[in-house]
Amino acid sequence: MNIIITGGAGFIGSNFVFHMLKEHPQDRVICLDKLTYAGNLSTLAPVMDQDNFRFVKADICDRNAVYRLFEEEHPDVIVNFAAESHVDRSIENPAIFLETNIMGTAVLMDACRKYGIQRYHQVSTDEVYGDLPLDRPDLFFTETTPIHTSSPYSSSKASADLLVLAYHRTYGLPVTISRCSNNYGPYHFPEKLIPLMIINALHDKPLPVYGDGLNVRDWLYVEDHCRAIDLILQKGRVGEVYNVGGHNEMRNIDIVKLICKELGKPESLIHHVTDRKGHDRRYAIDPTKIHKELGWLPETKFADGIKKTIQWYLDHEDWWQPIISGEYQQYYQKMYGSRG
Ligand code: NAD
Ligand code: DAU
């Protein structure tokens, strides 16, 4: 099989590239990535010279480049991770989110229609369901929960999901969608909660917790997400949405305190700062469908996964140091400099 993985130089995409090359060595993996601020070619260095791996720098919105790649590689499967993924950035500048996350998805699916495909898989998010109240722990997102988005990011992802389902119904495109909760693990870009707090704590810098810090996210180790997508490709039913989550709800403040504890840093580093606009309160996935239909269960417990992740950041300063010393500093100053 020839599989195109878009966004494979980013956090989850790179973990998925490694997963596929390890679990399916007979397949050919082509990574298409624009290398935005979030894409990092050095992440892929260990596989760059493998015969069954090819990296192509291109924009999923570039129709000519995408069609050319389909003509060269005759892919059987597309897995679309490519996206603008950070909620805070979407609040600052929605336009690029609409362009990449919606229009880019359309271009990829147009290529699938034109050249034919066995499967188009869209990597989506639990954020399309909006949020749940903190005082209703009995509520979870299922695949039939109405789409009800909060941020430009989640709205762009929801739009893409609707388009994917429309291409299935209208053109019969063989699609699947996964909607996953918050991932954590190696190669997570430092702008996101867990790596940001690890790296700030290591530098004894303030740990900026938005609002009261009581917002809840459902954390899943990235490898468990990769296994879920692999299973959906193999056994998932075409036209279906699968929720992916680990029943591991944590409050932001508790995660930050845990990181302080693991690194031996004082909780006095924690600073409550101005809340994110429209901040979703709680995400919680009901993964019954993927468990019952495909037999998927998460394998990594949070207590182990967070230790592994912290150790990975301790061992891989060579990966994150160049990132945080470049344009990231300007981003950080803009987003956090004046945040009271
Ligand atoms: P990321 O920001 O770390 O990586 C995104 C990758 O996409 C980067 O390599 C970037 O260069 C590439 N990219 C961006 N725009 C592109 C374009 N126009 N053309 C080609 N490549 C482009 O993101 P991530 O956290 O790895 O998320 C990957 C996917 O998973 C996204 O679709 C996101 O919505 C979804 N998702 C993420 C999480 C999470 O917790 N991180 C959870 C659920 C779903
Ligand atoms: O739920 C899946 C989503 O998870 C994905 O679709 C997104 O691509 C991914 O970025 C993530 O979105 P979140 O907004 O949940 O992740 P983030 O790491 O930005 O924030 C997690 C929580 O931590 C959120 O409640 C905001 C809070 N936060 C975040 C940052 C960066 C802070 O309190 N301080 C911070 O500095």
What is the helix fraction of residues, given as a range? 40-55%
Query: According to CATH, what is the topology of the domain at 2-189 and 219-248 and 285-300?
Result: Rossmann fold
What's the mean pLDDT score? 97
- Biggest sheet record: 7 strands, parallel
What's the shape? globular
Largest sheet, order of strands side by side?
3-2-1-4-5-6-10
Ligands bound, unique: nicotinamide-adenine-dinucleotide, 2'deoxy-thymidine-5'-diphospho-alpha-D-glucose
What is the number of helical segments per DSSP (H or I, 4+ residues)?
Answer: 12
* Percentage of β-strand residues: 15-25%
The secondary structure category is alpha/beta
Gyration radius, in Å: 19 Å
Low-pLDDT windows of residues: none
Order of helices and strands: EHEEHEHHEHEEHEEHEEHEHHHH
Report the top-level CATH class of the domain at 2-189 and 219-248 and 285-300.
Alpha Beta
Distance between the termini: 52 Å
The CATH H-level homologous superfamily of the domain at 2-189 and 219-248 and 285-300? NAD(P)-binding Rossmann-like Domain
Task: Provide the CATH architecture of the domain at 2-189 and 219-248 and 285-300.
Answer: 3-Layer(aba) Sandwich
Number of strands: 12
Catalytic activity: dTDP-alpha-D-glucose = dTDP-4-dehydro-6-deoxy-alpha-D-glucose + H2O
EC number: 4.2.1.46
Cofactor: NAD(+)
Protein name: dTDP-glucose 4,6-dehydratase
